[in-house]
Design brief:
Elements (H helix, E strand, L loop, with lengths): L1 E3 L2 E7 L6 H8 L14 H13 L3 E8 L2 E9 L16 E8 L9 H14 L6 E4 L6 H10 L2 E7 L4 E8 H8 L9
Parallel strand pairs: 5-6
Antiparallel strand pairs: 1-2, 2-3, 3-4, 4-5, 6-8, 7-8
Length: 187
Amino acid sequence: MSTTGIGTFTIRPLDPLKDAELLHSWVTHPKAAYWMMQDAKLPDVEREYMRIAAHEHHHAYIGLHDGRPAFLMEKYDPRYVELVGLYDPEPGDVGMHFLVAPTDRPIHGFTRAVITAVMDELFADPRTRRVVVEPDVSNKAVHALNEAVGFVPVREIDKPEKRALLSFCTRERFFKRHSPAARGVAV
């Protein structure tokens, strides 16, 4: 659980069948273009998240804002998923993707609060030393957001589906910037 000035965030495991309709509406929305599922049909989304649910090194979660579904989070082990052969993983590396649900009523600072809650969740595991991301090089908005929470770009890499910006955020860098006191949260 992560509490911010705009509410409380909790994260639960994704249920590929029960959550498929909700996910489908998120991943096919125009704002989710970088998720690369714009033309997906409901069975495609079910299959993709059933595949993730069955994978030993890839996990998906639904993030809740004040109890309501608000974002998708995936974590993966980059030694086995997404980045195999594209960089030299270190012990404690965890890969991450996140997608904020589309809304008609945006809340100022919401996406930054979501990525902060995602990072809190990943670093809650003491084995996580560094979070790894690989967003599309043209996704300037997410690069700025990643930098704001402590990611440092390392280099561009070629993945089968995109040219990506490999970036890392260490535990120390994240907590230096995002300790509860730094976020204005009473401890």
